[in-house]
Amino acid sequence: MTGDKTHQYHRHLPEDPEYSAEKLQELLTEKGLVDEETLDEIVNIYEHKIGPQNGSRVVAKSWVDKDFKKLLFENTSEAISTLGYGGRQGEHIVAVENSPEIHNMVVCTLCSCYPWPLLGIPPNWYKSDSYRKRAVKEPRTVLHEFGVELLNGQKVRVWDSTAEIRYLVVPMQPEKSLGLKENDLIPWVTRNSMIGTGLPTRPL
Fold first, then answer.
1. Is 112 marked active-site?
2. Which terminus of the chain faces fewer neighbouring Cβ atoms within 10 Å, N or C?
3. How many domains does the chain have?
4. CB 86, CB 96: distance < 8 Å
5. In a domain? residue 36
């Protein structure tokens, strides 16, 4: 979200969370509560193997590969497994497609269910009480605050993620990206565009 409303979701965080995390890691290691090599491997997994880049690859492939796109909407879990993604928090994922008529948006009203294997760790605003309540009651206002301008006549469909089903929004491919190859499309797909609170954007 933009302006002051963005900060309300992050004000509980320390000014330098990366520094705080490093100090916590040092403290836990000193006390022998964690093994440093194990901790480094966990960090490596979440930085390089689990994260939004996985979901971005799925979306980019669906934009250029008709067979993959068909499978993605028929059996999302099977489609993403062909790319090596799956596992805990990703057992039952359903892909929903944006169109000029429908804009999809995902929320978890009970807690923070989220497709970790595709999008990584959920952002703090996704877990906030404000987002969980307002996304259902006033989705258009929330989208506007995120900077998403809907098309004329475009309806909003809100999906409530649960422990049984998690959702992946497949955004519409920007016209300016048409003709690009799959690998070149991946940077266009943002994490928020796969939650529905953003749109694909040209990489900087």
1. yes
2. C
3. 1
4. no
5. no
Of 56, 81, 99, 112, which one is the catalytic site residue? 112
Q: Is 203 within a domain?
A: no
Given 20, 62, 99, 111, the catalytic residue: 111
Q: What is the pLDDT of residues 110-149, one digit of tens each?
A: 988 999 889 988 999 999 999 999 999 999 999 999 999 9
At a CB cut-off of 8 Å and minimum separation 6, what does 62 contact?
Answer: 68, 69, 72, 95, 170
What token pair was written down for 64? Answer: 């250029």
**Chain segment 178-202, per-residue pLDDT in tens:** 999 999 999 999 999 999 999 999 9
Name the catalytic one among 108, 161, 177, 193.
108
Task: Establish whether 108 is a catalytic residue.
Answer: yes
Provide the residue range defining the domain that includes 157.
50-194
Q: Is 112 domain-assigned?
A: yes
Summarize pLDDT for 129-139 with one digit per residue, the tens. 999 999 999 99
Q: Give the global pTM.
A: 0.78
Write down the catalytic residue from 62, 113, 161, 193.
Answer: 113
Q: Is 113 an active-site residue?
A: yes
The CATH number assigned to the domain holding 163 equals 3.90.330.10
CB-CB contact of 188 with 203 (8 Å): yes
